[in-house]
Design goal:
The chain is α+β, with helices and mostly antiparallel strands. Helices cover 39% and strands 19% of the residues. The mean pLDDT is 93.
């Protein structure tokens, strides 16, 4: 019988996380040694405990309470979908979800791990399921998609309760169709991926064109990749 995750709560309550003014990655100011931080975002950090390997404890920074509420609401609607982590419970500053093993698509690009077409199709099915239960899947990007063998899990669902279409996934899909064959199975340096992401954020607009964006960046990216070859 699995150990109860509530035994970890006293440790979770000792964690102190600070958000940054520029909405950058949070800072973990204090955390018990029994917990290991396995990921950080702009609102929260995720911890695991060796004796409770099935659980992930997502702890939010002070001032990010609304994000926690939004994420809990989304997970409760998603219930036991195979496309998303399982929700177990929550507290004032945290939620408890299943600890999903695997590699995100961002790291796949860094390591040169092929991303087959059926992965893209499965993300589409996951998003359709989210819409079916009344959510609005947004903020779906490379680091929020975990590859688990032939299947995927989508994480970080706090934006799913907000209106509007940020078109991030649509742009990624089009970029995959147009340009992924040029880099498939190649190891792409993080600096190159981060450069593309920063340029995307700067140029994104209602009239944004993936094709024009790609044509503009391809010569520069080719040069960067040659320099790092």
């Amino acid at each position: 019988m699995p150990m109860d995750w509530r035994q970890v709560v006293p440790l979770i309550q000792r964690i102190k996380i600070e958000a940054t003014e520029d909405n950058g990655i949070v800072r973990v100011k204090e955390a018990p040694s029994e917990l290991t931080c396995i990921g950080k975002g702009t609102d929260a950090a995720v911890f695991v405990h060796d004796e409770f390997p099935r659980y992930a404890f997502k702890v939010y920074a002070i001032g990010r309470e609304e994000k926690r509420k939004n994420e809990e609401k989304a997970y409760r609607l998603l219930k036991d979908s195979p496309y998303f982590p399982r929700f177990y419970g929550s507290g004032k500053s945290y939620i408890v979800i299943s600890n999903e093993k695997g590699i995100n698509l961002y790291d796949c690009l860094i390591r040169g791990i092929e991303i087959p077409k059926h992965v893209i199709d499965e993300v589409d099915r996951a998003m359709e399921h989210a819409r079916h239960v009344g959510l609005n899947p947004r903020d779906v990007h490379l680091k929020n998609i975990i590859l688990q063998g032939d299947h995927v899990k989508l994480i970080d669902v706090s934006e799913y309760v907000n209106p509007g279409n940020d078109r991030r996934w649509e742009h990624l899909k089009e970029g995959y169709q147009l340009y992924y064959p040029l880099i498939a199975s190649r190891k792409i340096p993080p600096s190159v991926l981060d450069f593309v992401n920063n340029q995307y954020k700067k140029q994104k607009s209602p009239t944004f064109s993936v094709q024009k964006f790609g044509k503009l960046l391809l010569p520069l990216l080719s040069k960067l990749l040659e320099e790092r070859a």
